[in-house]
Amino acid sequence: MLQNIRDNSQGIVAKIIVGLIVVTFALFGVESLVSLTSGSNAPATVNGVDISERDVLQGADLQRRQLLAQMGENADPTLLDDNLIRKATLDNLIQQEILVQSATNQDMAISDQALDQMIVNTQDFKVDGVFNPDRYQAVLRNAGLTPMMYKNLLRKESLIGYERSGYMGSAFVLSSEAEKIITLDRQTRDLAYLKVGLQDYMKDVSLTPAELTAYYDAHQQDFMTDEQVAIEYLLINKADLLKEVKVDDAELQGQFEQLKAAFKSEEQRTVSHIMIEVSDSVDDAAALAKAQDLEKKLAAGEDFAELAKTESDDPGSASDGGNLGVYQKGMLDGPFEQAVYSLKAGEVSEPVRTAFGYHIIKLTDLSESKAPVFEEVKDQLIAEQLDNKVEQIYVERVGQLTDLAFSSGDLQEPAAELNLKIVEAAPFSRKGGNDDVTSNQRVVRAAFNEELIRDGFNSDPIELDSGRTLVLRVKEHIRPRQLSEEEVRPQLTEILTLQKAGEALQASLEAELEKLQQGAERKPVNGAEWQVADAVGRADRKQPAEVMDAAFKLPKPEQGASYSLITLNDGAQAIVAVTAVHEPDLSAVSADEKKAMRNILSQRSGQFDYQAMMEARKNAAEIERL
């Protein structure tokens, strides 16, 4: 079941839907959904436009599937608060409607033909690289969508994307700003650093029993055992039930007859095209002239696929010789489809005008889907029959286990009735155990349920995955206890040794730093030598990251060097010195490099502008929650 949820929430369809309702989750995080909060305010209107109940339910369902997929194999649907998901979905649908209205008010639009082209070029709808109508319908059906609903969602996403692209494309920065960033980016520094570890200071640390006792007394809460439980459980595994079922040949034949009866032969048209785009740089007349010239070349015998590779302006199909895959009646609207269904196999159309430009269309193949043959589908039918039979037994056994576990005081009777082995698990804490059962969070939550611990009841059935269900009982509850000083003495010794060594190291380097800042010569400390590196750039990976970070934060030295004292991730400490700062020669930076930097900075500026626009539109909108 969980695998089906994951499968149905992946791909471009889910991404488009979830992409339209992502803002609130970016702001509040997945954790905000895992709670006991309740309440929802749906539906709503935005500037007089309704957000329907269906939109809220559909968006919440898709978001729920996506979250379960992100939570992984042990995803527990009970962790998700449906009311909070619903409210967050509504918030994001309001944001979506605000942005769609904003784009529409800017006279932005997208044609049905453009949406159709996006659909047929979507990878999730292709089989072996070509559009497949059955795959298209199946993906949408699994996502709970009709083609009309999906097309509407795609239209909204496209409109929002157009306006966002407008902001991103119109933002700009001055050349002087770009040059400042390039200067900082290409600046190099001469640096030196002295890294001193804890080891040499640890050997000089001495601890008294009184110090150990004092630390233990002050931190007793840190020295407690974890609360633990020991459980026993009964597991029903669907894989173990396969040996109880056999293939029924008569039933197999019946399955095949049903498959044949449901089969409908459909005409399949495989289509290729060469598209000449009409754009700001190529007007309608020029595009038509080029298309007519290509038409003449084809009539003279030139290869369609080769011309498509070199001449077509459709990047999605040009590299494949213009191949658009398989079409069925009703997939496209307007002149393109009319041309497709007016051709015979192998024929090429005249130039056909659409919203994109001119198309020369070739019907590369015309065929009928073939009825299934028993031998070709036999293995599939056998697998389906066995799976259905095992599923039936599995559901029945889980039901029996549920009833027996509820009425029994322990697991003995259910084990005997169902011929199951009682499995005993080693004690584990609330963090979970070391095997796939006791590390499962649903098992952990059930095992630490106060009622099960107090009264010794059997748990409700717990589904580990789509093929395994168990019932558990708590055998022993091990409460946390205070560890004695003697038990934690090695831990105390290690903690205090590191603490004292760190204090000694800190004091030693602070004294050395003070001397250096007063102009003293850089000398080794406790056997550690200074490391020197000249003309180091920001992207240098040869030096420790913490040293690089500190070096490029230090001010340019007026004389001598600039210094700082830092602590490294491994507990060592270092004095970092910058002795010189070298500015780059901007005359050596090419115009293309400066242009690239301006583009990067412009995109960042566009992002900020777009975010500001979103906030302004939201503040100005009339939003009513019903």
Automatic annotation (TrEMBL):
InterPro entries linked to this entry: PPIase_dom_sf, PPIase_PpiC, PPIase_PpiC_CS, PpiD_chaperone, Trigger_fact/SurA_dom_sf
Topological category with respect to the lipid bilayer: Single-pass type II membrane protein
A Pfam match: Rotamase
Keywords: Cell inner membrane, Cell membrane, Chaperone, Isomerase, Membrane, Rotamase, Transmembrane, Transmembrane helix
Record's signal peptide: none
Domain of life: Bacteria
Places the protein is found: Cell inner membrane
Transmembrane segments: 12-30
Main location: membrane
Annotated PpiC domain residues: 266-365
PANTHER family referenced in this protein's UniProt entry, alphabetically: PEPTIDYL-PROLYL CIS-TRANS ISOMERASE D, PERIPLASMIC CHAPERONE PPID
Family membership noted in the UniProt record: Belongs to the PpiD chaperone family.
Protein name as it appears in the record: Periplasmic chaperone PpiD
Biological source species: Amphritea pacifica
